[in-house]
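note to self — DONT lose this again. spent like an hour looking for the file last time. sequence + predicted structure for the chain T wanted, 124 res
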Amino acid sequence: MAKIAGKSGFVGIGDSASRVVGVNQWAIDYTADMLETTDFSASGVATYIPGVSRWSGTFSGYKDGVPQTLGVTDSVSIFLAESQVINWSGIAYISGVHPNTNFDGIVSYAYDFQGTAALTVASA
């Protein structure tokens, strides 16, 4: 598989065309609980089955024009692209908003989100 640069990535809120302006980074955590099923027949080797899956993440960037009007507990359709192709999408709640201002820096915003229901996963 060829390497790709993240410079064409984006975050969309509402629909894939509604890009959040100023974003320069996003990350997603997609995990599943592993439920231990070890019994006496396992000969001392732990065994597991998958349980509940969950996903959450963050995106951040610079304030660029009017700041994104996302508040804590807002439910959004979120689209996360590694390049011009949307790779990850689902419904999420905004769980944190973190504005940051320094006297010698650029005003930035960071958002945390918690997925609910299924995540459409990158296929390639």
